[in-house]
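Data card: per-record layout.
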Amino acid sequence: MAIRLSRTFILRKLHQLSGIMPLGIFLLEHFYTNSKALAGPADFNNAVKDLQSIPYILFVEIGGIFIPLIYHAVYGLVITVEARPNNLHYPYARNWFYTIQRVTGIILFFFITFHVLNFRFGLIPGLNTLSVARNPGQSFEIVSREFHNAWIFIVYVIGITATVWHLANGIWLFLVDWGIVIGERSQRLTGYACIAFGIFLLAVGINAAVAFIHPGGLLAGFM
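The structure for this 223-residue chain is written out next.
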């Protein structure tokens, strides 16, 4: 007997899957590359050069990043519009997580648009006019100059925090909704693991951002 799947079911599953692969994988790579700034401008610039030397990089970006990102963002907004938060009636942790996941999704829609237009294309009027991708030899200087603007740095701290939350909680939702983690105890333990992963990833992301304005990042003063 064939099982007929609804269009909404399929779209939601694709939305979840795109958030893990390729977008989650790309985020980890992005944080890794940004962490090269801890070793100084030369290492970061070389890392950007290596990325830009990937064969057919434009097609990789379009198929592996931009298309999944646009789908995930747009359908995420559809889910957010349809959401019915019930925190006031049922103030449990998971109800708050449900709401925060959608709030961070809205934040990310605007943050990622700003980030891509600013550093990938250099199209934000009054700010950066150089594309990091097209000027890899100046990439550290471009990012550093932007991050020395306190307001821009605050925007990125908020964006990084929202991104990490959205991914860490999204991983838990993916594991539960796809039936990979079953049972109350296993779901609770997995939730703790995702929180620990999120805290670690947030520290990595913030430390990498600080490295663009303070050599060696947050830990430099303790080494």
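Known properties of this structure: The two ends are 64 Å apart (CA to CA). Residues 7-215 form a domain with the 3 helical TM bundles of succinate and fumarate reductases fold (CATH 1.20.1300.10).

See the next section for split statistics.
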